[in-house]
Write a sequence for this structure.
């Protein structure tokens, strides 16, 4: 059976949950990078330190604002609008079955 990753904002991260989150890489750390979705900074582990720009990360929440990467996508759209993204996610919170993707 395929893993299901729920699309969330950083404020909705809960330990043990499989999530998908979009953020802009701010800088790197010893085992990955930090991303920001304009609300919080999230530590991503098991991702190449040289990763830059806007990314969508799929992984397991392993700690407070920390995700263990299981796959990611780099976007070329540098004009990404986080406010619009937040509004869409808030809308889909009413319909949870529409906010999950299979990996």
């Amino acid at each position: 059976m395929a893993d299901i990753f729920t699309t969330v904002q950083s404020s909705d991260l809960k330990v043990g949950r499989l999530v998908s989150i979009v953020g802009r890489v701010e800088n790197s750390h010893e085992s990955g990078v930090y991303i920001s979705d304009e609300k919080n900074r999230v530590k991503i582990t098991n991702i190449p330190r040289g990763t830059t720009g806007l990314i969508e990360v799929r992984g397991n929440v392993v700690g407070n604002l920390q995700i263990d990467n299981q796959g990611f996508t780099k976007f070329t759209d540098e004009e990404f609008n986080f406010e619009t993204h937040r509004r869409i996610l808030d809308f889909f919170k009413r319909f949870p079955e529409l906010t999950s993707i299979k990996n």
In short: The domain at 4-94 is CATH 2.40.50.140 (OB fold (Dihydrolipoamide Acetyltransferase, E2P)). Residues 6 and 98 are 9 Å apart (CA to CA). The chain has one domain: 4-94.
